[in-house]
Amino acid sequence: MDHDPQIAQLLREIRDHQREALALQREHIAAFKAQVERVERLNERAESLQGRAGKAVKALLWVVLPLLALVLLLMAWPYARYMFG
């Protein structure tokens, strides 16, 4: 059985295309890994910022809510004096 040179050439082309496809897949995987690492860093940074913001809001509420209650009482004082005085 003679080896047909066309078949050998086709097989070499298939092999070459497969190698190119594998190289392209490796590049895509490397790019994907870089993106995943970037996303993980951004998520860690976002979590840190959210934690700091939560603490700031909590501290701010401890100041703002009593001041708001005081302002409401001061606004209601003349009305209460007029109604009950």
Detailed description of the structure:
The chain has 85 residues and is mostly helical. The chain is 94% helix and 0% strand. The protein contains one helix and no strands. The radius of gyration is 36 Å and the shape is rod-shaped. It starts with a helix and ends with a helix. The model has no long low-confidence stretch (mean pLDDT 93).
Characteristic terms for this protein:
85 residues; mainly alpha; 1 helix; rod-shaped
Q: Average pLDDT across residues?
A: 93
What Rg do the Cα atoms give? 36 Å
Assign a percent range to the helix content: over 70%
> What is the H/E string?
H
The shape is rod-shaped
Which spans of ≥5 residues are poorly predicted at pLDDT below 50? Answer: none
Counting DSSP H or I runs of 4 or more residues, the number of helices is 1
Structural classification:
mainly alpha
Main sheet record: none
DSSP strand count: 0
Strand content: under 5%
Distance between the termini: 120 Å
